[in-house]
């Protein structure tokens, strides 16, 4: 298993280490040549990922992630959804099929409020996902990952999806 991480390539925003970037690019080409067709490419930035995808036979299956959906005020909620829409558009541009959605931790919201916020967020993003040509996949996580999600049961995720009721939102 070979990790392809952006860490170290851009130590400061807008400053790139060319040698690390070249090594990263070489690994992507080498892995693609070896038949590995799924890699995390959005770390390149959308324009660079689109360019690279024209050069090597890599299929983007999913992007991570929409969310969290745990904002406690309207200003933060609006800003988070704006960022999510940009993520959906980016995922569509690179040909991803799905954008995974994680709830984030409860962030002080009681369970019913947290659930309502997820339903609201997914419903607010559903049309943007359709327009971007992607689907949103709500992902329940193991309870040991409580810092990343308050959604642990598949049954709860399915209930949320049923309530959202949009073809571009699923599990």
Major β-sheet profile: 4 strands, parallel
First-last Cα distance: 27 Å
Name the shape in a single word: elongated
Rg, Å, rounded: 17 Å
Order of helices and strands: HHEHEHEHE
Task: Report strand order across the widest sheet.
Answer: 1-2-3-4
Mean pLDDT: 80
Q: What percentage of amino acids are in beta strands?
A: 5-15%
Number of strands: 4
Provide the helix percentage: 40-55%
Helix and strand composition category: alpha/beta
Which residues sit in consecutive blocks of at least 5 with pLDDT less than 50?
Answer: 1-10
* Count of helix runs: 5
What do you see in this structure?
The structure is a single chain. The protein has a four-stranded parallel beta sheet. The protein has helices spanning 18-33, 46-55, 74-93, 111-132, 154-164; strands at 62-66, 98-101, 135-138, 169-170. By secondary structure, the protein is α/β, with parallel strands linked by helices. The chain is elongated, with a radius of gyration of 17 Å. Residues 1-10 have low confidence and may be disordered. Helix 3 runs parallel beside helix 4 (111-132) and helix 4 (111-132) crosses helix 5 (154-164). The chain contains five helices and four strands; from the N terminus they run ααβαβαβαβ.
């Amino acid at each position: 298993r070979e990790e392809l991480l952006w860490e170290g390539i851009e130590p400061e925003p807008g400053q790139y280490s060319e040698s690390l970037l070249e090594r990263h690019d070489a690994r992507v080409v080498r892995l693609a040549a070896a038949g590995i067709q799924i890699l995390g490419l959005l770390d390149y930035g959308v324009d660079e990922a689109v360019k690279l995808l024209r050069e090597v036979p890599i299929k983007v299956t999913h992007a991570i992630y929409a969310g969290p959906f745990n904002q406690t005020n309207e200003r933060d909620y609006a800003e988070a959804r704006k960022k999510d829409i940009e993520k959906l558009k980016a995922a569509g541009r690179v040909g991803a099929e799905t954008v995974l959605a994680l709830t984030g931790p409860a962030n002080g919201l009681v369970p019913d409020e947290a659930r309502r916020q997820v339903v609201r967020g997914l419903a607010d993003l559903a049309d943007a996902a359709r327009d971007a040509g992607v689907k949103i996949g709500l992902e329940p996580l193991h309870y040991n990952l409580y810092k990343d999600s308050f959604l642990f049961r598949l049954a709860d995720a399915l209930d949320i999806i049923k309530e959202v009721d949009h073809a571009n939102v699923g599990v």
